[in-house]
Amino acid sequence: MREDPHRFPLESRRLRIRTLLLFLFLASSLSLILLRLFDLQIRQHGRLSADAIRQQQRQIPMPPKRGSICDRNGKELAVSLRSYSFFANPSLVEDLSRTSAKVAAALGLGPQEVYRKLQSRKPFVWIKRKVDPEVAKELLEVKLPGIYFLEENKRYYPKGGLASHLLGFVGLDDRGLEGLEFSHDSYLRGPARPPLGYCDALGRIAFREAEADVTLGGCDLILTIDEVIQYFAERALEKGVNASQAGGGSIIVMDPWTGEILAMADRPTFHPGDYRDYPPVFRRNRVITDCYEPGSTFKVMMAAAVLEEGLMGPEEKIYCEMGRIRLNGFYIRDYKKYGWLTFSQVLENSSNVGAIKAASRLGKERYYDYIKRFGFGAKTGIELPGEAGGILRKPRDWSSISLGAVAMGQEISVTPLQLLAAFCAIANGGNLMHPYLIRSIRGPHGEIVRENSPQLVRRVISSSTASKLTHILVKAVEEGTGKNAAVPGYRVAGKTGTSQKIDRRTGQYSHDQVIASFLGFIPARSPQLAILVTIDEPKVSSWGGTLAAPVFAEAARESLHYLRMRPSEGEPFPGTVRRSHEIERVD
């Protein structure tokens, strides 16, 4: 049988065609693969690398080390120290019951609470944040699978509750929530770099201890507060509030020449480190947030205006109507029946009738102008959150009895800080100074970021008027209602006050709910301290001279001894450096 001669050439052609098609297919496939590799490795390299890093690493926000808060002499009032925060990866825990028991015992937690956390399906669970080193020591020494820790910073207040209303407090995330911690949070916090956690293929996190401590510190606040004077002020206030069975109280100590606040305290108080354990009313800074009718302490401002305008001299006599005066159908009374009193004696004895008659010579417009010049009706601008501006109505809104009421310290609302700042203008010869708390802000490397200096707001009265009024206020302590404010060896200039609060049930002035106060500076000849004390709703008495004046005397006496001020002369001991009285004007 003969073979077809055309058969092999035909099959050969078909084989070549199949081979060519296979080659073209492989070549095109390889080209597509190469193009895809080019796209992945060259064109999308940056994006895919970033995605890979994000999948491998996780960041946990960690606050930076917070700056310290120190008193004027560098003594720390608030500081951040190392602590340990424990967390778990439940999927890596080997013996759930045993691990829960050990962790709970070491950290002082309930075993069931820890057990529930370790049953979580999440790869990251906090167990307890910011544990003190001595408490964390036991757990740090035991290597429990699935249990890890981070180093964090915890806020400590070395002096306990001292100056708590000034300092404020921070939350768990180290952000300021009240006081200076809040108002200067941006300075106290530093730039943060969150620590990295590396994940395995299942997304489980594993930290290395060396990666935790990567934060930078914030700035330090240097205050005008003197820790020792603050302590004396708080101790005296505590005694006064307890002795009078009062609902609360406050005290401020200020340098009248510079406006520097040396101490500021309230009662009731709290501990900043455990602020959650106290009700909000304990944490309120009454000195700047609470407005009240100042009562007879405000007669000092009326007297300053009358003397400055030359409407009356210290020895000019006023008939006090035997303790009662009628104003448009309302009777205003003194606590004693006075006849003729000199203008000086009106303040010494705190006569309402005499104050009303003196204020009538001023008139509404002129009196209002002086009140504004003393800083009332506006915030002082203190470096604390929540300051109130008080209430001062314009003369067009005054009633027919408002002039007399304001002269007695009614129908006007002030904060304790406003009142003391105004009073300092009398102590220093007539200058209203801007009160401040921050001397300087120091950077993490010791550099000065900001520095404050005394600032003059405006001249309110002449030095001559201030001198006359000081002489009257000295008599008010030595011969008048402020005798309990006397400090042996020093001359005190001051004024008592008792203001009735409004009864919310009746809308009328209450005879039981009052604020007793004393306002003074010492030594009268060369003032170093100006102090305001208020006692809120006392139960045993209602007079500022009885309740608040002794608190002033104790705080002043201890503070002057600490400052080494000479008795009688009011001059520093040799070697004591006076604070600078150089001032700048506020525009």
Characterise the protein shown here.
This protein has 587 residues and is an alpha+beta fold. It folds into two domains: 64-93 and 105-110 and 119-193 and 211-223, Penicillin-binding protein 2a (Domain 2); 227-585, DD-peptidase/beta-lactamase superfamily (Beta-lactamase, 3-Layer(aba) Sandwich). The protein is 35% helix and 22% strand. Strands 2, 3, 4, 5, 10, 18 and 19 form a seven-stranded mixed β-sheet that branches. Strands 12-11-23-22-21 form a five-stranded antiparallel β-sheet, with helices on both faces. It has a three-stranded antiparallel β-sheet with strand order 1-8-9. Strand 21 (493-502) and strand 22 form a beta hairpin. Helix 12 (299-308) packs across helix 14. The longest helix has 37 residues, at 7-43. It starts with 6 loop residues before the first helix and ends with a strand.
Summarize the structure.
This protein is of the alpha+beta class.
Brief descriptors of the model:
single chain; 587 residues; alpha+beta; Penicillin-binding protein 2a (Domain 2); Beta-lactamase; 2 domains; seven-stranded mixed sheet; 35% helix; disordered C terminus
Outline the fold blueprint.
Layout: H1 7-43, H2 45-56, E1 57-59, E2 69-70, E3 76-88, H3 96-107, H4 111-118, E4 125-131, H5 133-141, E5 147-156, H6 164-167, E6 169-170, E7 176-178, H7 179-183, H8 185-188, E8 196-199, E9 205-206, E10 220-223, H9 227-244, E11 248-254, E12 261-267, H10 280-283, H11 286-289, H12 299-308, E13 317-319, E14 324-327, E15 330-333, E16 340-342, H13 343-348, H14 352-362, H15 364-373, H16 402-407, H17 416-427, E17 431-433, E18 438-442, E19 448-451, E20 455-459, H18 463-478, E21 493-502, E22 509-522, E23 529-536, H19 544-562, E24 584-585
Parallel strand pairs: 2-10, 20-24
Antiparallel strand pairs: 1-8, 2-3, 3-4, 3-5, 6-7, 8-9, 10-18, 11-12, 11-23, 13-16, 14-15, 17-20, 18-19, 21-22, 22-23
Helix pairs in contact: 3-4, 3-5, 9-19, 12-14, 12-18
